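Reviewers of the previous submission asked for a worked example of the structure-prediction workflow described in the proposal, so we include one complete record here. The input consisted solely of the amino acid sequence. No template or homolog information was supplied to the procedure at any stage.
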Amino acid sequence: MQLIDGRKIAQGILDQIKSEVEKLSFQPVFCDVLVGNDPASAQYVAMKGRAAERVGIKFREANFPANISTEDLVMKIKKLGKEQNMCGLIVQLPLPASLDKQKVLNSIDSKIDVDSTGQVNTDLFYAGKAYVEFPTAAAVMEGLDFAARDAFFSPSRPSSSASESEWRDMLCKEFYKSKKFLVIGYGQLVGKPVEFLLKQRGARVDVARSKTENIAQLMKEADVIISATGKAKLVSGDKIKFGAIIIDAGTSESGGGIVGDVDFESVKDVASYVSPVPGGVGPVTVAKLLQNVVKVAKNMK
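From that input alone, the workflow returned the following structure tokens.
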């Protein structure tokens, strides 16, 4: 089994971001809005802040009490969006149940909606016109690209005028067209956009939702499984095809720590590639989010 090292993939992206930020004539600002005091959310916000500062992006954390009204939060978000050099503003999810989540997310100016959670950018994404992607979905694709290039690449390739990079890209395209993909979970931030991105690349994709009855059969038949449900140990070694590629994009709390959807110990001797939790999709998601911030900054310049 080969580990899909999200930290290593993320570092490559962050190095590129830092280089691009240094070329800007101003320092871009990235703001994360945190409502309430959920420890896991606070920890994730802090992690994004540290990553932003390391690449030269100014981080702005905006904290509001859990009992804030939807109307007041919308007003605060709109005010934050107008701050100088603001190039990215997101709202940390989940929000308190008392708030109108979509109304809050839609209040983010679409030009700086780097999570693509607002309706404007969501619609643009599925129309193929967005200039920023859903960060977690984009992170999943980065992990798949790594597995595709690594698994398909052969040093003894046929004689060709293509460079090694071009050759790897050609094999990557073949990977998406030749494998059978299964997306487990159809959420707004991962499952649904991942299915869209896979089909854009010509892949055959099955989707398993909460009411899908033949999920066991679909898992056994899939060459590649992307799971994003938040259900611990949903994907185990006895349920998958030998040599399958597994991308774990789910997170849940267990024993005081964060675990994914995949029972890592049971799949490691069955799967060919696995992205772990933690250290897999998560770090790459942060990197892709900051990459969106830089895209906005370049557009502003």
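The radius of gyration is 20 Å. We consider this example representative of the routine output the project will generate in years two and three.
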